[in-house]
Amino acid sequence: MKIEQRYWTQGQGWQQEGSGTLDGAADWVLVFSGTDTTRSASCLGELKARYPGALIMGCSTAGEICATRVRDDSIVATAVRFEHARIAPAQTDIADMGESHAAGKRLAQILAREGLVHVLVLSDGLKVNGSELARGLRENLPQAVAVTGGLAGDGGRFAHTLVCAGSEPAEGRIAALGFYGERLRVGYGSLGGWDVFGAERLITKSRGNVLYELDGQSALELYKKYLGDHAADLPASALLFPLALRSEQGDLVRTVLGIDDAEQSMTFAGDMPEGSYARLMKANFDRLVDGASGAASASHEMLDGASPDLAILISCVGRKLVLNQRIEEEVDGVRAVLGEQAVLTGFYSYGEICPQGVVTGCELHNQTMTITTFSEG
C-alpha cells in the first residue's frame, strides 16, 4: 500500500503532508472537508485532475484530521494505491430517516461478493437513522465482514451534510466502499471516555430515534432542567451532555441531533428503544484522551503484529467541543500507539459506526473515537 497525503487551506492552498508520492497513480482518494469546501467544484476538480483513475470518496465534517493536526474548513485528501487489494464502491440516496434500513440493505447487497473483507461507510449525518442503517448493513453482509465509518458533519450548525463517492457531493447520500483481498488486514476500535451523572431513567415513550418520555415525563423538559443555562443553546449544547443508553443489546451513547418544542421530543442519531434506560453524561478530559488511545490499541491488536499503513480516525463533534484547544491531544495519543509510519486521516462526525465490542457486524456509536487501521501484507 502506497499513500500520498495533501491538505488545502484558504490561506496556503494545497500543501503536501509527509514524503509519500504516487505521481497521480492512485486507486482511491479519501477526502474530508468543511461543508462549504465540500461544495467547491474547483477543489474537487483539482483532485480529479491529479488522480484521474482514482475513486474519490468523502464527506463534509465538523473538523478535519491530517496527521496530528486538526483543522476547520480545510480539505484533507489521502490518496492510496494498493498492491494486492481491490475496492468497489456503492452509494444510495434517501429522503428521510425511515429509509435508513432499506438503504443499508441495498448497499450490502451491492458489495457482498466473493473476497469481501471489510466495508467503510460514510453517510449523510442528518437524514439518516444510524442505528437502522447499521442494522440493514449487518443483516445483509456475510457474518465475518465488519463495517466501520461515520456520519458526515456540518460543524455545530446541523443544517446540511454532504457525501460523495465517484460523483458530486449531495445531501441524503450514503456511500460505502468494499475492500477485497486476503492480503489486506483491517483492524478497528471504538471507545468513549465520558462520565455518567444524575438518575437513570426508563424510556417510556419513543419512536425509533425520537424520544418523548422518560419515567412518564417529558424527556425534553427533564433534559432542559439538567442543562440549566445550556438549554438556551440546544441542540448544539446537547453535544456536551450525551445520554448513556442501557438496553438488552448492550451499552451505547446517544447524541441529540434536534429538538421539537411543539411535540416535546428529541431526535437522536440512533434508536432510543422503549424499555431501555438512559442517563446523562458529562466530559472527563483525561478519559476522553485515554479513550482515543484505547481505540488505537484495539485497532492495532487486530492486525496480528503488522504495522498499520493507514488509520482513519472518526471522532464525535461533541468530543471536539469539550476538548477545545486540547483537541490534538487525542490525535497525539493515537500517533503514540500506532507509530510514525502510519498515515493518519479522519474527521469529526455526527456519529460513528463500528462493531460493538467483539460482536461482528456494526453498530452506531456517539461520542467515541472510532479508528480503522489498514495494513497490506
TrEMBL record:
Which segments constitute the FIST C-domain domain? 219-356
**InterPro entries per the UniProt record, alphabetical:** FIST_C, FIST_domain_N
All copies of domain FIST, residue ranges: 25-218
The record's Pfam families line, in alphabetical order, gives: FIST, FIST_C
Name the PANTHER family on file.
BLR0328 PROTEIN
Q: Under what name is this protein listed?
A: Histidine kinase
Species annotation: Sulfurimicrobium lacus
Organism placement in taxonomy: Bacteria, Pseudomonadati, Pseudomonadota, Betaproteobacteria, Nitrosomonadales
